[in-house]
Design goal:
10 helices; 3-stranded antiparallel β-sheet; alpha/beta; 12 strands; 5-stranded parallel β-sheet; Rossmann fold; 2 domains; 269 residues; 35% helix
Length: 269
């Protein structure tokens, strides 16, 4: 078993911040920048008296979109257009596409199509549309506070698309990034986070996963990791139902420091 949280690990808890519940991905507001969406969202009431949680771990495994960067408007534009071209419900398609490899979404919706060709076209459009791809609050500070060998990214994007978006947001590309190009099974399968942990030399149970999508939360939990959820693209309820152990607003609510050969994360609940 991995190193335990300093709060009683035998009794994992859910924690919510007094922040904002983002609109559903299907909401037209999702074509707006994240900060604009946050201003018009519903306020939440804190459900815990604790103000801080401290978690010991060996490494942190980040999802990319919705955790470190916001590319949701671009993603929504691409999938909305693709759905209309194929006579599909754009809202349902955008919702389905989030947090999953694009070929999985295409295969579910158009199983008799040329999935490889459709996937290449979607990727081409996503790589060309980087308008509004921005860094999320606290992401740079948090990454800069972590030793390079103690964090990586596991994303449902292909490697070329992940690199384009990270560069657009001004973030470094980790040497051991895991993308959909590196796995057979995408999220919610545990393989992405199993490989991400192994690339750093740790067991998933020694790692903390940071996610914004239910599929990613389930992938982290299935891998054996503990999961912090950010309600940047999905509701608190969806993250809770998927099994997130802690829920805080974004990277700005997480601090990291070295601790006895590992890491100590502090969550601002």
């Amino acid at each position: 078993m991995g190193r335990v949280a300093q709060l009683v690990e035998q009794r994992p808890f859910k924690a919510w911040v007094a922040g904002s519940i983002p609109a559903a991905l299907t909401n037209l507001g999702y074509f707006k920048p994240l900060e604009e969406r946050r201003l018009s969202s519903t306020r939440m009431v804190p459900r815990t008296l604790d103000e801080m949680a401290k978690i010991s771990c060996q490494a942190v495994l980040f999802d990319m979109d919705g955790v470190l960067i916001d590319s949701t408007p671009a993603v929504a534009r691409v999938w909305h257009r693709w759905a209309l071209e194929h006579g599909l419900d754009p809202e349902a398609v955008v919702r389905m596409a989030h947090g999953r490899p694009s070929r999985m979404t295409i295969g579910d919706l158009l199983p008799n199509s040329d999935i490889d060709a459709e996937d290449r076209e979607v990727e081409r459009r996503e790589m060309e549309d980087i308008e509004g791809v921005v860094l999320l609050p606290g992401a740079r500070r948090l990454l800069n506070s972590l030793p390079l060998e103690r964090w990586t990214i596991a994303t449902s994007c292909t490697r070329p698309l992940a690199e384009v978006r990270l560069r657009a947001a001004g973030l470094p590309i980790p040497e051991k990034i895991i993308t959909s190009s590196d796995v057979i099974n995408g999220k919610p399968h545990p393989e992405p986070y199993q490989k991400a942990a192994a690339s750093l030399g740790f067991s998933p149970s020694d790692c903390i996963v940071v996610e914004d999508a239910p599929a990613g939360v389930r992938a982290g939990k299935a891998a054996g990791a503990r999961v912090i959820g950010f309600p940047t693209t999905m509701s608190v309820h969806n993250l809770e139902s998927a099994g997130a152990d802690w829920i805080v607003e974004n990277c700005a609510a997480v601090a990291a420091q070295n601790d006895a050969g590992g890491l100590l994360l502090t969550l601002d609940l």
